[in-house]
Amino acid sequence: MNFIGLESSQKLRGGFYTDPVIASFLTRWIKIGNPTSILEPSCGDGIFLQMIEQQGIPGLKQVTAFEIEHDEAEKARKRTHLPVRVLDRDFLRWFLFKAQDEDRFDAVIGNPPFIRYQYLPEEQQLLSEKIFAQLGLPFTKHTNAWVPFVLASIRLLNPGGRIAMVIPSEIFHIPHAASLRRYLATQCSRILLFDPQEIWFNDTLQGTVLLLAEKKREVSGKSKGVAVIPISDRQALSENPERQFQRAVYANGVIIEGKWMPIFLTSHERELLAQLRISPNVKCFSEVASVDVGIVTGANKFFLVPDKTVEEFALQQWVHPMFGRSNHVEGLVFTTDDHQANKSVGLPSNFLWFQEENIENLPSNVRRYLEVGLNQQLQKRFKCRTRRCWYKVPSVYSAPIAMLKRAHNYPRLVLNRADAYTTDTAYRIKPINIRSSALVVGFVNSLTCLTAELEGRHYGGGVLELVPSEIERLLVPKIDDSTADLNSADHRFRKMKDDLAFLREQDSHVLGKIGLTKKEQIILHDACVRLRNRRHRTPSSEKVLNEE
């Protein structure tokens, strides 16, 4: 996680402006609803206002726009001759304290700010929390500014009104958007998401989607659900958005309960997954292993050091083998040879564990090293200052298996033969009624990898991340492989040049053992690869006409 001081001013205020092609597409769609009133809750320099004017919406009487940055609000006012009022104030505050019953709109359009909760000023944090409370929705401090913006916008829509917005693709999977997903599903008759296969806002490394939703005319009305249309490039936005909205295939019911990732699967893929969930040969991860976070040092660069530091301060008595990154672990097994190899190339693979609480009882060389930490103000860091002794790391133990928190291609388990410790960038895994070797070998397969894509979350750069509750829901084939099988798989993994070829080999071995046919293995593999490719989306090569 970055600290606020390391982020750009653009990122801190969520100022990633919209390409006119995108703005025009969204405006064409809301125009179909013949709105007399339009809301733009974060108008920036006014690109959507310009598009509304260019579209020439008959019967439009009023446009209300908000922009908290005074200079940008002034640009927006000068960009259009519409009957528009641009208010240079906080939209969230206006919604909570100024909006009247008559402040309802036929359409909402825009690109709400993408700002992490911890980067928001305290006042906006409180406003965000109040919006969730007013709507009776669960709140989490992991939320992002765009979520309360969309929630408030839906609340301000008239029955039958339309909302068209650019939002992060994390809407499908991130836990902090769960309340929004539920609110959309209960308030809207149809929800369509256009899913670009490229990153359109290159500076963010953040995938985006185009949200088109129509509010129910009656609260008790039924919803058709959620649909997704993948689009390869901006050329697809030249098509008629209304025709796509009407013709899309919407999913409802259990498919959109919780995360919306199952929408990306075909009906055949979903049926096969449902069958495997009740198979006696397939278990939830929580049935075969426990998951615990790795060691939380509070300052990994201080407590996890290379040999050079150990030698400089003569700390050999206090070091223990440790790993926590993918470049520390090349295979499916971590051995003492791997640890020595890491040390030989200067990787920080030595964990410093000081257990003496009375600093005066420690040798002078250790006190000298601790002084380095004090000079770095480590004792004031949250995890360190909450300890009775800032340098005494708690909960230090190793586990027979480790799992890295993040993965680029697919997650894997690592048998910990070196009895090494792991940082909080890895999880400590203890098998339940299954041999460690069998669990590690059986974990790499397209079924488990597919459920990881469905259950996990991803951020900029396309890295997959899983937290313990998500790991516990993964589907794992239960096989009875031996140590020899693991050694063979470990050797092949280290030598592989094509990770998907290795995955197919694993499918034949692991999924074949539990009775899946070749056709079923291919179905799971193709679904897994499709979701992974989506996660790995790359920046667009097309020129963006209107980014800051």
TrEMBL record:
Q: In this protein, which residues make up the domain named Type II methyltransferase M.Eco57I C-terminal?
A: 258-511
Gene Ontology molecular-function annotations: nucleic acid binding; site-specific DNA-methyltransferase (adenine-specific) activity
Family, per the entry? Belongs to the N(4)/N(6)-methyltransferase family.
Q: Which UniProt keywords apply?
A: Methyltransferase, S-adenosyl-L-methionine, Transferase
Boundaries of every Type II methyltransferase M.TaqI-like domain copy:
90-189
| SUPFAM superfamilies, A to Z | S-adenosyl-L-methionine-dependent methyltransferases (SSF53335)
Instruction: Report the EC number(s), separated by commas if there are several.
Output: 2.1.1.72
**Ranges that cross the membrane:** none
The organism's superkingdom is given as Bacteria
* GO BP terms in the entry: DNA modification; methylation
Q: What is this protein called?
A: site-specific DNA-methyltransferase (adenine-specific)
Spell out the PROSITE patterns in the cross-references: N6_MTASE
Pfam families, per this entry? Eco57I, M_Eco57I_C
Q: What class of enzyme is it?
A: transferase
Q: Which reactions appear under catalytic activity for this entry?
A: a 2'-deoxyadenosine in DNA + S-adenosyl-L-methionine = an N(6)-methyl-2'-deoxyadenosine in DNA + S-adenosyl-L-homocysteine + H(+)
Q: Which InterPro entries match?
A: DNA_methylase_N6_adenine_CS, M_Eco57I_C, MethylTrfase_TaqI-like_dom, N4_N6_ade-DNA_methylase, SAM-dependent_MTases_sf
